[in-house]
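User: quick one, fold this
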Amino acid sequence: MAGIPKVMNAMMEEVAPRLQRGAPVISHVVTIQGGEGDVAKPLKEIQERFPKVIIGSYPFESPQGFATNLVLRSRDQSSLASAVNDVRQMAVELTQNGKVRGWS
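Assistant:
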């Protein structure tokens, strides 16, 4: 691709109409009020059950302490919905067991 923005834009305008579009990638975020290590094992089990879903774990520090954004992505809407449901259930259980402070 061209390095000059105007040239690249002109090239994309020419090529874009000819590109085939696939199924869109859908994403959903669940925020856990706890560290990555708190969710690693159960999250691995969820990932293994849903190979069509990509799960990313993105830790950060909130004013209340460590937290982790779990981003689930897939082109398969049904698999994504099931995986999100399992992640939410995991979050509920971890919260009830005192392993994390909560989730949203």
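User: anything notable?
Assistant: The longest strand covers residues 65-74.
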